[in-house]
Amino acid sequence: MTDNPIGFPGLGLQFNPSPVAFTVFGRNIYWYGIIIAVSFLLAAYYTVRRAPRVGIKQDDFIDALLFAVPVAIVFSRLYYVVFNLREFTYDPVTNPYPQKVYEIWKGGIAIYGAVIGAALTAYIFCRVRKLRFSALMDLASIGLLIGQCIGRWGNFVNREAHGTRTDLPWRMEIFVNRVGDEIINNRVAVHPTFLYESLWTLLGFVLLHKAFAKRKFAGQIFLMYVAWYGLGRGLIEGLRTDSLYFFETSLRISQVLGFVSCAAAVALLIYNWRFRTHDPATLAPLGAPAPAGVTPEAEEAEEAAFGAAGPEDEGAETEAAAENAAEAPDGPDTDRPDAGEETEKSEETEAVPRPAPEEETL
User: Fold this and answer.
1) Structural domain range at position 234
2) pTM of the model
3) What's the pLDDT tens digit per position in 230-244?
4) Does the residue 69 lie in any domain?
5) CA 229, CA 264: separation in Å to the nearest integer?
């Protein structure tokens, strides 16, 4: 495909990347796979590092990823196959050599299928591990935006996921066989829809990263992700020429799903903001002070978890303890009979770790 350069004539740019990055033992390693792998690693690094801020241990979050990622890959393929059966069904005239369902390396996956599979796996995982599903999805949704933003550049290398013809200044010129039902077999200028979605998810990442520290209830960031991505996908999908359709209808399945999920998420956000009262304790980071009545065993477990949060949190605790010591009186009132008990209570109170700071700089 190196004889198919990618041009941006309105910007005076032209690229001609090969889909194959290198060859190992006679097998091609594609840029698409490398880009997807890099996007996953960056998303995993971001989410695992911030997992304690939603009250989840890093080990638990890593375990969730280990289960969710394989299932997401399977669902992404199934989604594509179900809504594109003609490509996998034998027909002696139109499709004498159908694609095999398991040949995922030849292309044919859908991000919405991956999101559905990952969400279902995360729900089951949280039920088994007794974790808050909404809190886990708050963090995972920002990781999804990282993966989607970077992963779309694999479509650029493959010269795919483009849109209809356009003469806009940022138009992308490539060789295409067809646009919709029109046979082309020539170079045409089209919408770079891969770029639209990459920029849309990048902006979404910035907005949701900033909103994370100000969220009012667990699940808010996930609903914001569903609304943001659904709106963008619904608009961009209308420009694409390789859409999956709802069986024999003219409905683009990802466009319909995008708009419907966006509307549902907005409705749920309004309901939770206006008509529900949420307990701030559900947003407590890992290592926050235990509420009254908690057992000593639970306190020890939380203290151990807080100790793994990192030196930044320990520094904040040490500084707070120094301030308390400076404000304290010179010593206990030994004339009072209960002075010793108050001193012990004070020491126990100071030993309770303070919550980890909510804001974090990338």
Assistant:
1) 6-282
2) 0.77
3) 999 999 999 998 899
4) yes
5) 13
Q: Is 305 in contact with 289 (CB distance < 8 Å)?
A: no
Residue 270 falls inside a structural domain: yes
Max CA separation in the chain (angstroms) = 101
Which residues have CB under 8 Å from 263's CB, separation 6+? none
| DSSP codes joined into one string, 297-311 | HHHHHHHHHHHTS-H
Domain annotation covers residue 255: yes
Instruction: State phi, psi for 163 to the nearest 5 degrees.
Output: -110, -165
H or E, element range at 24 = strand 20-24
Residue found by looking up tokens 């088994």 in the block: 128
- Cβ neighbours, 10 Å, residue 212: 21
* CB-facing half-sphere around the CA of 236: CA atoms within 13 A: 21
Secondary structure class of 239 (helix, strand, coil)? coil
Kindly tell me the sign of the dihedral angle through the C-alpha atoms of 297, 303, 304, 309: positive
- Assigned domain for 326 exists: no
pLDDT band at 124 (very low <50, low <70, confident <90, very high): very high
